[in-house]
Specification:
The chain is mostly helical. Helix content is 40%, strand content 7%.
């Protein structure tokens, strides 16, 4: 998990257009905080309405840019067909935030490989958590730490074996809620970390090179995207160097 800064600048015309449409339809947080406005609308109904707005497609484009095209929780690469719009504060409990840009992030969508393995295993997602993660597992749960908090990254430790640990019991609870140690993610993180730490002859890179890469991997590419699992790789390198 890493901090995601929302772009509320006056130059961000996509956000301005969306917020204007929210207010026009009285679906913004101020209006929806009044129980007499749209009294029969649940949070799910609010979201179903706003996602049909013409401005919503462009808003998602802004969110993808905010996140550098990686999942808000695990760091996998995402694109138009491989993400889910995530409500940090669940829309089932907070209808006034159901359509707010400040409460929306993009989470990865289960791959076909994951879906196939899950179906072969049978049962529901709570019984087969190794096949589910991020928003797909989180559902309507609330997190203790979220990517909207500036210090969120400080609560999570990434190990070179692909495992993620929490610095406290709240972070450990979030890891469980998000399924961040499911087999699929652990294996993918492990391979990404190995590829960054070792050279072609499977020799661990010198500390100086590791330090440099831990910094470089957190830079955006020319197209504005991040390298997949960038913060995981940086975290694992820094943890190794600080042992």
């Amino acid at each position: 998990m890493r901090y995601i800064e929302k772009d509320f600048s006056y130059e961000n015309i996509d956000v301005i257009a969306y917020e204007t449409e929210l207010i026009k339809n009285k679906l913004d947080k101020c209006n929806l905080s009044d129980a007499t406005i749209h009294p029969t609308m649940s949070g799910s109904h609010v979201y179903d309405t706003v996602k049909s707005f013409d401005s919503f497609k462009k808003l998602k484009r802004t969110m993808l840019k905010d996140q550098g095209s990686i999942c808000c929780y695990c760091g996998q690469l995402i694109k138009d067909s491989t993400y889910i719009v995530e409500h940090v504060l669940p829309k089932s409990k907070y209808r006034h935030f159901a359509g707010e840009y400040e409460n929306l992030l993009l989470s990865c969508k289960p791959t076909q490989e994951e879906e196939t393995e899950r179906k072969e295993a049978g049962g529901n997602k709570k019984n087969n958590i190794k096949y589910w993660h991020c928003d797909k597992l989180k559902d309507n749960e609330e997190l203790n730490y979220t990517p909207l908090q500036k210090d969120c990254a400080s609560h999570f430790i990434y190990l070179d074996n692909g495992e993620v640990k929490g610095n406290d019991i709240l972070a450990e609870a979030d890891i469980k809620t998000l399924g961040l140690n499911c087999n699929y993610l652990k294996n993918r993180r492990y391979n990404a970390i190995l590829g960054a730490m070792f050279d072609d002859s499977n020799t661990l890179l010198p500390n100086e090179e590791l330090e440099q890469y831990a910094t470089l991997v957190m830079n955006r590419k020319q197209d504005g995207s991040f390298i997949e699992f960038c913060f995981v790789i940086a975290g694992a390198i820094n943890h190794l160097l600080n042992k």
